[in-house]
Recover the amino acids of this structure.
């Protein structure tokens, strides 16, 4: 009865401890996730370009070949694959924590007990007993101890703490896979953007070289005019200076082409070499571009999916930190052979086994557990805010790209008309100059204006393609 009376306070203390732990299991309240609009700029078509595979979206065979090479060789993608493997290892580690730990053991040791201790006296006295044979007599004064068998420890997941940690590791594994998809979409968009930059630079180079030829003709003409007394040296110098400036633009454009080609080769995982490409005039902008609905973007865009999975992982970490306050049930066991004489180690009489189970609850280290809980709660809320920020950024990028497509289309139409007018002005200025009705300054101005207008038109056309590529990426296209 006395033993039972002593047991009741211990059980009562354990129950109170468990109840206090259950109080701490209440999860922190998360604010509502961000509420998204129903459509993009009034678009109602549910099918957007983000669902088109990249090999169908990009029609230029040279660009498709470059993207395919990058997906095979890009080093950032290769590193992302290794991060996935690390996350998979973490998940396997968390999964293994649910199972018993069984270790094979072969050990040997010994001890010399003091002569004036209970063990020393007991061992000495035992050897004089008539109830033991020679095999059971204790070696003296050094007592060996040999063991061969298995030892096991197992934490029973009665509260689900280990399963919650496994869930967090699994969500992080999925998040690393989405991160690889995000790198893929970014890589495809980056390659396409550089490709269109190169096609635009090729066009700029052609325009510059065409203008160089025109300006060389103008310089030769004014020199003839000077020899005939119809022009002066100042006019020759002005037109010659303009020619030199345009020739410097040619070398500057060639250098930019080299830089873009080298950047593209780096993304392809190869050393610098020439990039085969088509002209910008051979590229086609679709007449109408559909973004789809926001729900499609949320499902397709990998960085949003990654942020959501990381948010779920941190929330599981928070739950595991709360469950750490509850008592844990641990079981230890041993099965094997144990003897103090090596020749008797594997005899039937040396078989030994034990099993022990018990609850252990934190008492004096609760401050450390509370600190871990607060840290996990803060990390969980941070992940929620990061998810909301990613969604906002996605909408901002889609909206900006849609508007940019519309505006650059209008600008390109106006710039085309401007180039036509200025090209006519160049012809008119040359005719007037030859007949003496225009000065060399008017010829210079007309040539400079048409060069700038043609370069601006090329830049606007390039911006159209870049906006289309950015819209495709921002809608989550390209990771299949």
């Amino acid at each position: 009865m006395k033993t039972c009376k002593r047991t009741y306070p211990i059980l009562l203390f354990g129950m109170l401890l468990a109840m206090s732990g259950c109080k701490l299991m209440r999860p922190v309240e998360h604010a509502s996730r961000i509420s998204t609009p129903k459509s993009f700029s009034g678009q109602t078509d549910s099918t957007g370009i983000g669902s088109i595979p990249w090999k169908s979206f990009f029609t230029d065979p040279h660009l498709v070949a470059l993207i395919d090479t990058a997906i095979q060789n890009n080093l950032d993608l290769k590193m992302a694959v290794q991060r996935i493997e690390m996350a998979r290892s973490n998940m396997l580690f968390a999964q293994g924590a649910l199972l018993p730990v069984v270790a094979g053991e072969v050990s040997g040791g010994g001890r010399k007990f003091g002569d004036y201790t209970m063990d020393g006296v007991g061992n000495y006295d035992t050897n004089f007993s008539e109830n033991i044979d020679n095999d059971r007599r204790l070696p003296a004064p050094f007592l060996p101890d040999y063991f061969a068998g298995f030892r096991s420890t197992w934490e029973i997941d009665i509260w689900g703490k280990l399963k919650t940690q496994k869930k967090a590791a699994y969500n992080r594994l999925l998040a690393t896979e989405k991160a690889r998809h995000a790198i893929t979409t970014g890589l495809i968009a980056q390659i396409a953007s550089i490709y269109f930059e190169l096609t635009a630079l090729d066009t700029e180079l052609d325009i510059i070289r065409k203008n160089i030829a025109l300006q060389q003709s103008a310089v030769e003409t004014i020199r003839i005019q000077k020899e005939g007394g119809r022009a002066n040296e100042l006019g020759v110098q002005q037109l010659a200076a303009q020619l030199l400036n345009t020739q410097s633009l040619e070398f500057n454009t060639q250098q930019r082409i080299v830089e873009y080609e080298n950047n593209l080769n780096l993304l392809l995982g190869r050393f610098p070499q020439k990039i085969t490409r088509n002209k910008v005039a051979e590229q086609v902008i679709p007449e109408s571009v559909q973004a789809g609905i926001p729900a499609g973007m949320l499902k397709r865009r990998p960085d949003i999916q990654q942020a959501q999975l990381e948010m779920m992982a941190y929330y599981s970490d928070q739950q595991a930190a709360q469950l750490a306050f509850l008592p844990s049930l641990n079981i230890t066991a041993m099965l094997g052979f144990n003897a103090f004489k090596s020749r008797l180690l594997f005899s039937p009489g040396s078989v030994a086994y034990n099993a022990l189970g018990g609850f252990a609850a934190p008492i004096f280290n609760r401050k450390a557990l509370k600190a871990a809980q607060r840290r996990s709660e803060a990390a969980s809320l941070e992940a929620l805010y990061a998810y909301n920020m990613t969604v906002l950024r996605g909408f901002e990028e889609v909206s900006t790209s849609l508007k940019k497509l519309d505006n650059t289309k209008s600008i390109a139409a106006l710039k085309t008309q401007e180039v036509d007018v200025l090209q006519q002005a160049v012809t008119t200025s040359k005719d007037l100059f030859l007949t003496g009705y225009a000065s060399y300054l008017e010829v210079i101005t007309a040539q400079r204006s048409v060069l700038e207008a043609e370069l601006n038109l090329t830049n606007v056309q390039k911006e159209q393609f870049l906006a289309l590529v950015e819209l495709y990426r921002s809608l989550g296209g390209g990771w299949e």
